[in-house]
Amino acid sequence: AWEAIETGTGNTVYSGTVDLTTTQSGSTYNLTDGARGNHKTYNLNRGTSGTGTLFSGPDDVWGNGTASNAESAGADAHYGAQLTWDYYKNVHGRNGIKGDGVGAYSRVHYGNAYVNAFWSDSCFCMTYGDGSGNANPLTSIDVAAHEMTHGLTSATAGLNYSGESGGLNEATSDIFGSTVEFYANNSSDVGDYLIGEEININGDGTPLRYMDKPSKDGSSKDSWYSGIGSVDVHYSSGPANHFFYLLSEGSGAKTINGVSYNSSTSDGLPVTGIGRAKAEQIWFKALTTKFTSTTNYAGARTGTLAVAGELYGTTSAEYKAVQDAWAGVAVGS
Ligand code: ASN
Ligand code: ZN
Ligand code: CA
């Protein structure tokens, strides 16, 4: 059968009605993104292995906006992968996770009431559970971008997933989870410095993580300390998430897209932000040209300062902001 790249309609759980890039094969439409390395979205239908079935059907409309329709979470996952691909291509000049234009794939409806999502290097794919009660699939934009970014980190710096490098790996996924959500600029799902605020994983509407003040989640660390390498990587990520917030937005109180933040520093000194657009360039370039599998917090400081020097010069406001933001999370020289 002949194949054509099409623009379908996704009625997502979290992002309203969106355009999805799909493929038409004969009289069948598939959730295969022909414009982005043929990234595919599969329905595991509660299975936990293999790929289940590729979402396909006689029309190019996917889901109905509620999680009770099996296609809806597929539409979210397809959209999140599409946005993340576009973000890396348009903002950072990277063509796909490995930079080779080849797509990965997504699997939704993993297991029964599975309350997590994950990236796997072995399948080069990301997987989403439906959440408890199957009401809140873990398919929001920030979660999708978080998981896909694990693939990027693996393909670049290769930050080991334990100790301080593990915290930096997790923070990289949160940082780009946030920046992709801002990039989406979707009216149903505006950007913020919160992770997982839409999936209601805590049951009380609170997010999984807060980048302006990581300790608000009850477990994450706001600042570096010797020994932080022995806490869970989802909590030792705190200082790097906090660094990224301070570098982007500066210290103090601020409201962005209706969300209020208040970020303080461990040294009590103010930080003047340089804006997210510069901060994300610095982190991406450090990740892809300076960080290695064993980079720790001190190394992240050295790497981001080196990049700030290359991009803006060592006497620039940007360079000073990188110094000040690291000092604000107790990572010193
Ligand atoms: N959602 C988690 C993550 O991406 C899954 C995990 O802990 N492996 O980090
Ligand atoms: Zn993660
Ligand atoms: Ca978010």
Short descriptors:
333 residues; alpha+beta; Neutral Protease, domain 2; 2 domains; six-stranded mixed beta sheet; 8 helices; globular; binds zinc ion; binds calcium ion; Neutral metalloproteinase
Secondary structure: elements and pairs:
Blueprint (H helix, E strand, L loop, with lengths): L2 E9 L5 E9 L2 E3 L1 E2 L5 E5 L9 E2 L1 E2 L3 E2 L7 H23 L12 E6 L6 E4 L4 E5 L11 H15 L7 H22 L9 E2 L13 E2 L22 H4 L1 H12 L2 E5 L2 E5 L12 H14 L7 H16 L4 H12 L5
Parallel strand pairs: 1-8, 5-9, 9-11
Antiparallel strand pairs: 1-2, 2-3, 3-7, 4-5, 5-6, 10-11, 12-13, 14-15
The structure holds asparagine, zinc ion and calcium ion.
Beta-strand content: 15-25%
Average per-residue pLDDT, rounded, comes to 97
The top-level CATH class of the largest domain is: Mainly Alpha
Cα-to-Cα separation, first versus last residue: 62 Å
CATH architecture of the largest domain: Orthogonal Bundle
Ranges where pLDDT stays below 50 over 5 or more residues in a row are none
Number of helices: 8
**CATH-assigned fold name of the largest domain:** Neutral Protease, domain 2
Compressed to H and E, one letter per element, the order equals EEEEEEEEHEEEHHEEHHEEHHH
Radius of gyration: 20 Å
Function: Extracellular zinc metalloprotease.
Protein name: Neutral metalloproteinase
Organism: Streptomyces graminofaciens
Family: Belongs to the peptidase M4 family.
